[in-house]
What we know:
alpha+beta, 3-stranded antiparallel β-sheet, two-stranded parallel ribbon, 5 strands, about 120 residues
Amino acid sequence: MSPVDSTQDEAGRAVTTCSIFIEPIMGIRETLTVRTYSEVTQINFDKNIAVGVTYKRHGVEFNAAAMKEVILSAGPFGSPLLLWKSGIGPKEMLSKAKVYFLLIYYYILLAPIII
Protein backbone atom coordinates (compact mmCIF):
# COMPACT_ATOMS: atom_id res chain seq x y z
CA MET A 1 0.00 0.00 0.00
CA SER A 2 1.09 3.53 -0.66
CA PRO A 3 0.44 6.48 1.64
CA VAL A 4 -2.56 8.66 0.80
CA ASP A 5 -2.03 12.40 0.85
CA SER A 6 -4.71 14.18 2.87
CA THR A 7 -5.16 17.46 4.67
CA GLN A 8 -5.86 17.39 8.40
CA ASP A 9 -6.76 19.99 10.99
CA GLU A 10 -5.04 20.45 14.36
CA ALA A 11 -7.07 17.59 15.87
CA GLY A 12 -6.02 15.19 13.11
CA ARG A 13 -9.41 15.11 11.38
CA ALA A 14 -9.53 15.00 7.58
CA VAL A 15 -10.73 18.28 6.08
CA THR A 16 -11.71 19.50 2.61
CA THR A 17 -10.47 22.50 0.66
CA CYS A 18 -13.93 24.01 1.05
CA SER A 19 -13.98 23.61 4.85
CA ILE A 20 -10.52 25.17 5.19
CA PHE A 21 -10.64 28.06 2.69
CA ILE A 22 -14.25 28.81 1.71
CA GLU A 23 -16.46 28.16 4.73
CA PRO A 24 -14.50 30.45 7.11
CA ILE A 25 -15.08 33.48 4.85
CA MET A 26 -18.66 32.77 3.78
CA GLY A 27 -20.85 35.54 5.14
CA ILE A 28 -17.81 37.77 5.64
CA ARG A 29 -16.88 38.37 2.00
CA GLU A 30 -19.86 40.04 0.34
CA THR A 31 -18.36 39.49 -3.13
CA LEU A 32 -18.21 35.69 -2.72
CA THR A 33 -21.15 33.59 -3.89
CA VAL A 34 -21.01 29.80 -3.64
CA ARG A 35 -23.41 27.74 -5.76
CA THR A 36 -23.59 24.13 -4.62
CA TYR A 37 -24.85 21.35 -6.93
CA SER A 38 -23.56 23.35 -9.91
CA GLU A 39 -21.32 22.50 -12.85
CA VAL A 40 -19.57 25.11 -14.99
CA THR A 41 -20.10 24.28 -18.65
CA GLN A 42 -18.33 27.19 -20.35
CA ILE A 43 -16.17 30.24 -19.70
CA ASN A 44 -17.68 33.41 -21.19
CA PHE A 45 -15.39 35.87 -22.97
CA ASP A 46 -15.53 39.46 -24.15
CA LYS A 47 -12.88 39.51 -26.88
CA ASN A 48 -10.00 37.63 -25.19
CA ILE A 49 -10.94 38.42 -21.58
CA ALA A 50 -12.88 36.00 -19.37
CA VAL A 51 -15.87 37.88 -17.98
CA GLY A 52 -17.92 35.09 -16.40
CA VAL A 53 -19.15 31.52 -16.68
CA THR A 54 -22.17 29.54 -17.80
CA TYR A 55 -23.19 26.81 -15.37
CA LYS A 56 -25.96 24.29 -14.82
CA ARG A 57 -27.72 23.78 -11.52
CA HIS A 58 -30.43 21.14 -11.22
CA GLY A 59 -30.64 21.01 -15.03
CA VAL A 60 -31.23 24.77 -15.44
CA GLU A 61 -28.60 26.90 -17.19
CA PHE A 62 -27.40 30.16 -15.58
CA ASN A 63 -24.82 32.83 -16.38
CA ALA A 64 -22.62 34.38 -13.72
CA ALA A 65 -20.68 37.56 -14.48
CA ALA A 66 -17.39 38.24 -12.72
CA MET A 67 -16.88 41.64 -11.14
CA LYS A 68 -13.09 41.39 -11.23
CA GLU A 69 -11.66 38.05 -12.38
CA VAL A 70 -12.51 34.47 -13.29
CA ILE A 71 -10.44 31.84 -11.48
CA LEU A 72 -10.31 28.44 -13.15
CA SER A 73 -9.68 25.64 -10.68
CA ALA A 74 -11.27 22.47 -12.01
CA GLY A 75 -8.35 20.09 -11.50
CA PRO A 76 -5.84 18.54 -13.90
CA PHE A 77 -8.51 17.03 -16.15
CA GLY A 78 -11.46 19.40 -15.68
CA SER A 79 -9.54 22.63 -16.34
CA PRO A 80 -8.29 21.71 -19.85
CA LEU A 81 -11.69 20.20 -20.69
CA LEU A 82 -13.47 23.39 -19.65
CA LEU A 83 -11.00 25.48 -21.67
CA TRP A 84 -11.61 23.29 -24.73
CA LYS A 85 -15.39 23.53 -24.30
CA SER A 86 -14.94 27.31 -24.17
CA GLY A 87 -12.99 27.40 -27.44
CA ILE A 88 -9.43 27.53 -26.14
CA GLY A 89 -7.08 24.76 -27.17
CA PRO A 90 -5.51 22.90 -30.08
CA LYS A 91 -7.19 23.80 -33.39
CA GLU A 92 -7.34 20.17 -34.55
CA MET A 93 -9.17 19.03 -31.40
CA LEU A 94 -11.61 21.95 -31.44
CA SER A 95 -12.37 21.43 -35.15
CA LYS A 96 -13.08 17.70 -34.65
CA ALA A 97 -15.40 18.50 -31.75
CA LYS A 98 -17.09 21.24 -33.85
CA VAL A 99 -16.28 23.87 -31.22
CA TYR A 100 -15.88 27.46 -32.41
CA PHE A 101 -12.36 28.39 -31.39
CA LEU A 102 -11.49 31.63 -29.66
CA LEU A 103 -7.79 31.09 -29.03
CA ILE A 104 -5.56 28.38 -30.45
CA TYR A 105 -2.91 26.82 -28.26
CA TYR A 106 -0.74 23.98 -29.38
CA TYR A 107 -0.16 22.58 -25.91
CA ILE A 108 -2.22 22.69 -22.72
CA LEU A 109 -0.73 21.24 -19.55
CA LEU A 110 -2.70 18.63 -17.67
CA ALA A 111 -1.06 19.46 -14.35
CA PRO A 112 0.01 22.70 -12.67
CA ILE A 113 3.61 23.82 -12.73
CA ILE A 114 5.12 25.05 -9.49
CA ILE A 115 8.20 27.26 -9.91
